[in-house]
């Protein structure tokens, strides 16, 4: 039997970026329920007050900090304030991200840079800033949030797919770099989950039916479907796992489509 205590995050301090809404809040809740104290980040930290209160109601500490992952000075300030608050950081979840949905022929220079600077460059420099202390401490769990687009391409998502594919490759490089120092780096890649960013897609019943037809579990993901995966990757239960991309996608990455069976 696995050691249940390996999943216990009591006494751990975790940073989760992009916690003003969406999956970032679900990741933070899951870590708090497992025992972790939190640093919550947003470009507008005043929007975090109600979520901070929710985490504190679970009996955990929650420190709200400003973070713009496209600004190196903001990244540095956040990391310094996080270490000042807790003395150490054990867990980093790089969740902050953005998307631009357009046909590839219509993507502009600034739109491309917005997505890549946020999702890929921002992920790297937040990793770098936080991992300095982890390496010194000899312990860390970094979870970079990718996507099913880390391994598959979809029309209308060129910069997003490029950024998430880059996160997968970056994860492997950092795992090799920091593994000797006790720091694991993995990528959690959700499939199709309804979020604020993509809610408009789920208003199209034909599209949802098309999507569900390709998911072996026959439904899009629910945010709590990610709870077990994020706690696993953030805990000592995953101590010998690094450089990996864990797809939580209902099986869509199998390439499944409806089979036509002839009698």
Question: What's the SSE blueprint?
Answer:
Layout: E1 13-16, H1 22-33, E2 37-42, H2 49-57, E3 62-66, H3 72-86, E4 91-94, H4 109-137, E5 140-145, H5 158-178, E6 183-190, H6 205-213, H7 227-234, E7 245-248
Parallel strand pairs: 1-2, 1-4, 2-3, 4-5, 5-6, 6-7
Q: Would you count the extended β strands for me? A: 7
Q: Kindly report the CATH topology.
A: Rossmann fold
Largest sheet: 7 strands, parallel
- What radius of gyration results from the CA coordinates? 18 Å
Please identify the top-level CATH class: Alpha Beta
CATH architecture: 3-Layer(aba) Sandwich
CATH homologous superfamily grouping: NAD(P)-binding Rossmann-like Domain
Q: Class by helix and strand content?
A: alpha/beta
Helix content: 25-40%
| Unreliable runs | none
Number of helices: 7
N to C succession of SSEs: EHEHEHEHEHEHHE
Gap between N and C termini: 45 Å
Mean pLDDT figure? 92
* Apparent shape: globular
Beta-strand residue percentage = 5-15%
Report what the structure shows.
The chain has one domain: NAD(P)-binding Rossmann-like Domain (Rossmann fold, 3-Layer(aba) Sandwich), CATH 3.40.50. It has 7 helices and 7 strands. The chain is of the alpha/beta class. Strands 3-2-1-4-5-6-7 form a 7-stranded parallel β-sheet, sandwiched between helices.
């Amino acid at each position: 039997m696995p050691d249940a205590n390996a999943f216990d995050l009591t006494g751990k301090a975790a940073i989760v970026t992009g916690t003003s809404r969406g999956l970032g809040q679900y990741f933070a809740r899951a870590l708090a329920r497992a025992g972790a104290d939190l640093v919550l980040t947003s470009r507008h930290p005043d929007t975090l007050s109600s979520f901070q209160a929710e985490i504190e109601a679970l009996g955990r500490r929650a420190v709200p900090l400003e973070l713009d992952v496209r600004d190196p000075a903001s990244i540095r300030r956040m990391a310094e304030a996080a270490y000042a608050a807790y003395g150490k950081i054990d867990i980093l979840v790089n969740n902050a991200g953005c998307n631009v949905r357009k046909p590839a022929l219509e993507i502009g220079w600034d739109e491309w840079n917005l997505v890549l600077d946020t999702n890929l460059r921002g992920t790297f420099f937040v990793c770098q800033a936080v991992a300095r202390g982890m390496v010194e401490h000899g312990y860390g769990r970094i979870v970079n949030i990718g996507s099913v687009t880390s391994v598959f391409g979809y029309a209308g998502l060129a910069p997003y797919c490029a950024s998430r594919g880059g996160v997968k490759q970056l994860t492997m490089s950092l795992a090799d770099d920091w593994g000797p120092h006790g720091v694991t780096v993995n990528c959690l890649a959700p499939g199709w989950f309804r979020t604020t960013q993509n809610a408009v897609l789920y208003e199209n019943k034909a599209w949802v039916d098309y999507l569900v037809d390709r998911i072996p579990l026959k439904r899009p993901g629910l945010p709590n479907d990610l709870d077990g995966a994020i706690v696993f990757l953030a805990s000592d239960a995953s101590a010998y796992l690094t450089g990996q991309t864990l797809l939580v996608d209902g099986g869509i990455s199998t390439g499944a489509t409806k089979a036509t069976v002839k009698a």
